[in-house]
Amino acid sequence: MDTASIPPFPDDIPTHPLLVVDYERVKVGDPEEIELLWTAATKLGFWYLKNHGVDEEASGMFDMAAETMALPMEEKMKYEQGDDGMSFGYKAAGANAVDASGMKDTAQFINIAKDDAVAWPAQARRAYPSTVNARMDSTIVPFIEKSLAVNNTLLEVFNDRLGLPKGTLLQKHLREEYSGSESRCTFSPPIMERQVIGAHTDFGSLSFLHNRLGGLQVFVPGAETWQYVKPIPGHAFCNLGDAMAIFSGGILRSNLHRVVNPPGAQGALYRFSLVYFTRPGNSVVLRALTEESPMIAQAVANAPDPTKYNTGVTSYDWFTRRIKNQRIKNRKGPETWMASRGTEHTELTKVETS
């Protein structure tokens, strides 16, 4: 999609004003910028990130997504993700539920494992369409490598602010360990009054999102309705996922969000979005790091329900449970949808009707 032809986000649509964090200033350790990042991460868990240096690679990923979605359906389905709890590969529209009623989603995905990008040209996790392979060297590997660097820098900041020993969080996200970390390109048609992707928290640790059109909404704590967040050129969205909420004993926030049709004239367009998900290594147990940080220990001790920060499961188990129970083919009833949920717990019931 030519960005010059995209209609502007409507001025008359209310939006939530996310904090803007300058990645270059965070990277050099600027204390004011780090404080701003910490505020964003603990209050809402969403923020804009500027000066991240990934715009060129992101543009190439949008091109790759368009090329992949233009393939015949028969060809794309050769690389379908399947129903066993892994998300790498192609996902057809309607393969996932967006709510407890079993309404089907309208989005197509092409997801590429971090492990396959790191191993390229060897195959680590699965095969991909020719359109993906053709852009591995020029586009996909550089995008994933740069996204890893950005998210790892943010992890180090959170590590220090949580009072954890140096390298604790990076050790839980080792490059060489298989994980659910992946890039995802999403493609959805203009469909009014439908959720493209239902209300959820993210599965992993950090999400690094590039949007050209509106449609992303957040549910702000204390609010009564969903609020749009406006895409800004040159600014990525970042948000925290379940794993960081658990590791931190709830100090860091994994916030509910969803995707709906873009507002105004943007709603008539096909919507592409791009995200890189950093997730813990498959063997990492999701638990609050109370033994490593007095700050986290205190947060868990003061929590209304401390048990939710000791899941007793690995990142792999958490991830596959959530993915598997979203799939329409695995649906038995509303309980299947609830089994796909993360750290949002009872918040979900309140907001799904908003």
TrEMBL record:
Q: Which Gene3D superfamilies match?
A: B-lactam Antibiotic, Isopenicillin N Synthase, Chain
Q: Which residues form the Fe2OG dioxygenase domain?
A: 179-280
Q: Which InterPro entries match?
A: DIOX_N (IPR026992), IPNS-like_FE2OG_OXY (IPR044861), IPNS-like_sf (IPR027443), Iron_ascorbate_oxido_reductase (IPR050231), Oxoglu/Fe-dep_dioxygenase_dom (IPR005123)
A Gene Ontology molecular function term for this protein is: oxidoreductase activity
Q: Where is the signal peptide?
A: none
Q: State one Pfam family annotation.
A: DIOX_N
Residues that span the membrane, as ranges: none
- What are the protein's UniProt keywords? Iron, Metal-binding, Oxidoreductase
Highest taxon, organism lineage: Eukaryota
Do the record's keywords include Ribosomal protein? no
Its family remark reads: Belongs to the iron/ascorbate-dependent oxidoreductase family.
Protein name as it appears in the record: Fe2OG dioxygenase domain-containing protein
List the source organism.
Answer: Mycena maculata
